[in-house]
Design goal:
By secondary structure, this protein is mainly alpha-helical. The chain is built from 46 helices and 10 strands.
């Protein structure tokens, strides 16, 4: 029985922050002007809900709702409409909401469009329209401003599900519903309504398919209407073809050829296209993914099977076996298992010579599992499908597949592989404490039959402990097992029968859980080898963090059990197990082809690649504080990557180079890793490659480039469902913005990073984000606030930051504490930082240490210490850190009444800050130079030329005595916009009050007037 669950009405909109901000801007603008906005999105995404939210939020005046037809109040001409609006508005602002404006007839749409462009004649009117996103926007609305609703992010969909079910949904059911809904809130609610309470709680099996034809049709609504049989066949064939495609679009020729097979008497054409389809070159796609699913699900079963059969015929003739087999399987007339077809699907999915993406291989494994009667083999195939989904960057698809595998009886090795996938998915997008436990369980389940894969799971478990800041668990996990056992030398795994050197499963008989890195996966395609240990030896991103932001060392000093240079935790672990040793490319499930002696077994080709062993040895040496032993091994990792284009090898090289302080090599390896990852189609690795590159750019002092890579990394991480990785990119963006005079941007990224970090236990991301916030305070001349924040991170106590990161913030803390008059707070942490500087792994640390001592030293010693720090900076390089030292030295000299020397140091600091884009710090240098009576670059009258036109307008109004609200009304912007720009003005000009700003503007105007008078003479 279905339909027994009563769904609570959601009391708030989840997500949609950008869209709501756009609507708020429209409503705020009504204080001074009229405006319009079009909201679009596919059925079910919440267009109507957003309009209702706008109407409920509007308090400044009346709200008018218009609809099509005379009885709904939609006038026939633009003039009539404007007259109606003028009367409705009176003297107050008016909000006009027009839902589903695409349903109006053409003359009415035209009138609405023309009225939107002439709203200013009707008073202060905001026109908010919604139009369907499953079709092209009507030409009448094409000129209007548009905001698009996208599917909900996983976290927001999760929150919506919790709200309407009181959080009572079984975890496996939750994962299935979220995957089925694909971010569509209306579909998610419809799925919940379809289930009984027992089904929601996991007490009864879910109906299959959960998103059936009726549910999809109800959400799609009138968008499913199709005028002709030919158009219906075209839509069905495109929808069927998308199911076995690598993306949302398909080849036009394939569709037309399939239509000819479907109806030999027809002459199919793609012109004109139904309005729900879009054509681009030789590709076709639906405007709406939901509508694509609905068209396929609601088609007559016989016609749907015929479409798949026609596509299979065309693809077989074109030599594309994997999609052809998938379509052949979907053309079957019943759900009964078909062993022969299932075996063929699994075999082709495992064939590395067959070109196919991870996503398509995962679809094939899942379909093979559905057609398999034998429970252990079915579990194996579902697990292989989950591994491929994870490789494709779709953990949302992997989780329901794991739940399906769990419902089947399976041997320990298969359960271990499934648990490893679950742990890796949680490591990238879930509580890392849970990931640690899942991966430890995977290691124990895999230990007997697949020791190499057990090793990779254990290393990933250490990744999770690192991400959580749990040093003791990390070290305990790393110390498991004996010495490493040699593995695949070439990083390529090919199908072969087991031989004498391997067991029946194609793997060596013993392996070190801590040291063996490469898990083996049968398949015949390149398999990414396991990056070295978990942030110590398992992940190429492992040790990058300390290298950023030109901060000092990484994490350890001699005698401390932390890994220097580990500043990028293992939060969203790289491929560790699945991506390294599991089923990549076309991996054949082990019990299916290995244990049963089939042809899909794996042959291990030799000894472990030297970079893997060297990285592991180097990282262990760093854990023990032995840089002399670590450097040769890590140097070999960097050197060997010069001739290796595999992503995992290049990521290791970038990590090792950062540990060694070789920033140029790290940037080169990071850039090559990104290119190789994109070329290989490993979507799960792209966010991590970008993260490595961003850290390398930060370490090199290239903050704009670091920001660009982190912005792209954030987008790819969110697309891949890797919220933990995204949190680290947010932290990088916060660190970059903290020197660029963007307090609002810093706050936004810090808030986003901390939201995920606190929820998922990401100690390192949280520490980096808090450090960024404190550094922004320090740059804006607020040392007391900075010292308060940083004290929580670096001073001893239960709240101290991540063990591998807090030392990075020590130089900032010492500066803040000294400037705030609290030097006594620094002694203990400075002693620890001195040990780290002596360790020698970070070239900046010695200069930073000398700067710290200079800040705390008596006057007779400070001068020499500042000079010593600058000399160390000259050796180490790095514009930002050197400029910070020069700024502090210049301030010290000015207060010692040595203006000539101070002017030189401050000028050098200003040039350094300008060179690396450190706007907030440059403002400090300019202010100091002005205090000396100097005319800094961009100072005086020229300073105003550094403002944007909007900032200059705001500065002049404020200088004339206007309040922020008065400026907002004058310029027709929101008060928040004025507040933001005014903060920028203060930072750029280096002023601290409105009075000082007024004097500067007056001085600039007087100087400009004098120059004009001189020119006339």
């Amino acid at each position: 029985m279905t339909g027994e669950t009563t769904v609570r009405t959601a009391v708030r909109i989840h997500g949609r922050s950008a869209q709501r901000e756009a609507v708020r801007a429209l409503l705020d603008g009504l204080r001074a002007r009229s405006g319009h906005l079009v909201v679009t999105g596919e059925p079910g995404l919440g267009r109507t809900a957003l309009l209702q939210w706008a109407a409920d939020s509007f308090r400044a005046g009346p709200v008018l709702r218009l609809g099509p037809g005379e009885d709904r109040g939609a006038p026939a001409t633009a003039g009539e409409l404007l007259t109606t609006l003028r009367k409705a508005a009176g003297e107050a602002p008016l909000l006009v909401c027009v839902d589903d404006a695409h349903l109006w007839d053409a003359p009415a749409r035209s009138a609405l469009s023309h009225a939107a462009e002439r709203l200013h004649t009707a008073g202060r009117v905001a026109l908010l329209l919604s139009v369907a996103g499953h079709r092209a926007v009507d030409p009448e609305f094409a000129r209007l401003a548009v905001v698009r609703l996208d599917p909900l992010a996983p976290s927001h969909a999760d929150a919506l599900l919790d709200e309407v079910t009181d959080g009572s949904t079984d975890p496996a059911v939750r994962e299935h519903l979220l995957a089925e809904a694909e971010g569509n809130p209306a579909l998610l609610l419809a799925l919940v309504r379809r289930l009984t309470p027992a089904e929601l709680r996991g007490l009864r099996p879910l109906p299959r398919p959960t998103a059936d034809a009726g549910t999809l049709a109800a959400v799609a609504g009138s968008a499913l209407t199709c005028p002709s049989a030919d158009a219906r066949d075209l839509l069905l064939t495109v929808a069927a073809a998308v199911r076995a495609a690598d993306g949302p679009d398909v080849d036009t020729r394939l569709v037309l050829d399939a239509l000819r097979h479907l109806d030999p008497a027809s002459a199919p054409t793609a012109n004109p296209l139904p309005d729900v389809l879009a054509g681009a070159g030789d590709r076709l796609r639906f405007h709406s993914p939901l509508l694509c699913r609905a068209v396929h699900a609601t088609a007559a079963p016989d016609r749907r099977r015929a479409a798949h059969r026609a596509l299979a015929d065309v693809l077989e003739a074109d030599g594309q076996p994997l999609p052809a087999l998938l379509h052949r399987s979907w053309s079957l007339s019943g759900p009964a298992p078909v062993a022969r077809l299932a075996d063929r699907l699994a075999a082709v999915a495992a064939d590395g010579t067959t070109p196919a993406s991870h996503g398509l291989r995962g679809t094939a494994y899942a379909r093979a599992a559905e057609l398999t009667a034998d429970a252990p083999v079915r579990a194996e195939r579902y697990t292989a499908a989950a591994e491929q989904a994870l490789l494709a960057g779709r953990p949302d698809r992997a989780r329901p597949l794991l739940a399906a595998a769990r419902d089947c009886a399976a041997p320990a090795v298969v359960r271990g592989r499934a648990e490893r996938v679950r742990g890796l998915a949680e490591l990238r997008d879930g509580p890392v404490g849970d990931a640690h436990q899942s991966l430890l369980l995977a290691a124990s389940l895999l230990a007997e039959d697949a020791p190499a894969e057990a090793a990779s799971a254990a290393l990933a478990a250490a990744d999770a402990a690192w991400a959580a800041g749990d040093l003791s668990s990390c070290l305990a996990t790393l110390s498991l097992g004996p010495a490493p056992v040699p593995r695949d030398a070439a990083g390529m795994l090919g199908p072969a029968a087991p031989d004498a050197a391997t067991g029946a499963d194609g793997l060596p008989g013993a392996v070190d859980l801590a040291g063996a890195v490469d898990g083996a996966g049968p398949g015949g395609v390149p398999v990414p080898t396991d990056p070295p240990g978990p942030r110590h030896a398992a992940d190429p991103r492992q040790v990058v963090a300390p290298r950023h932001a030109n901060a000092p060392g990484h994490a350890t000093a001699p005698g401390h059990a932390t890994v220097p240079g580990h500043a990028t935790p293992g939060y969203a672990a790289v491929p560790s197990a699945v991506l390294a040793g599991g089923r990549t490319g076309g991996a054949t499930p082990r019990t299916e082809a290995g244990a049963r002696g089939g042809s899909g077994g794996t042959r291990v080709c030799g000894a472990v690649p030297d970079p893997v062993r060297d990285h592991r040895v180097g990282m262990r040496a760093l854990l023990e504080g032995r840089l002399d032993r670590a450097a040769p091994s890590l140097g070999q990792v960097v050197e060997r990557a010069r001739t290796d284009d595999r992503p995992e090898t290049l990521l290791r090289a970038a990590s090792a180079a950062l540990l060694l302080g070789n920033v140029d090599a790290a940037r080169r390896a990071g850039a090559r890793a990104l290119a190789a990852t994109r070329q290989s189609g490993s979507e799960a690795l792209v966010p991590q490659a970008l993260e490595y590159l961003a850290y390398a750019e930060l370490r090199a002092g290239r903050h704009p480039q670091a920001r660009a890579h982190a912005e792209e990394g954030l987008r790819t991480a969110l697309r891949a469902g890797q919220r933990n990785t995204a949190a680290h990119h947010q932290a990088v963006l916060a660190l970059a913005a903290s020197i660029e005079d963007e307090p609002a941007t810093v706050a936004r990224h810090v808030t986003a990073a901390l939201a995920t970090a606190r929820r998922h236990g990401l100690a390192q991301a949280a520490t980096l984000a808090e450090w960024a916030a404190a550094r922004a305070d320090l740059g804006r001349g607020r040392p007391q606030d900075a010292a308060d924040r940083l004290g929580l991170l670096v001073l001893p106590g239960p709240g101290r930051g991540h063990f591998a990161v807090w030392r990075l913030a020590v130089p900032c803390f010492v500066e803040a504490a000294a400037l705030a008059g609290r030097p006594e707070d620094t002694h203990e942490v400075l002693t620890d930082f001195a040990g780290w500087a002596a360790f020698g792994a970070d070239p900046q640390a010695a200069a930073q240490l000398a700067r710290c001592h200079a800040l705390l030293a008596p006057p007779d010693r400070a001068d020499d210490l500042y000079r010593r720090a600058l000399a160390r900076h000259d050796e180490a390089g790095g514009d930002f850190e050197r400029a910070r030292t020069a700024l502090l030295y210049g301030k010290w000299l000015r207060r010692r009444r040595r203006p000539r020397e101070a002017r030189g140091r401050l000028g050098t600091a200003l040039a350094g800050f300008d060179r690396c884009g450190a706007g907030v710090w440059a403002a400090q240098a300019r202010a100091e130079l002005r205090a000396l009576g100097a005319a800094p670059q961009g100072g005086g009258a020229g300073t105003l030329t550094g403002l944007t036109p909007q900032q200059l307008r705001i500065a002049r109004h404020v200088a004339e005595g206007a309040t922020n609200r008065e400026v907002a009304l004058t310029l027709a912007v929101s008060t928040r916009t004025v507040d933001y720009h005014l903060r920028k003005v203060f930072a750029v000009l280096g002023v601290r009050s409105r009075l000082e700003l007024a004097r500067m503007v007056e001085h600039a105007d007087r100087t400009r007037g004098d120059r004009r008078a001189g020119d006339r003479m």
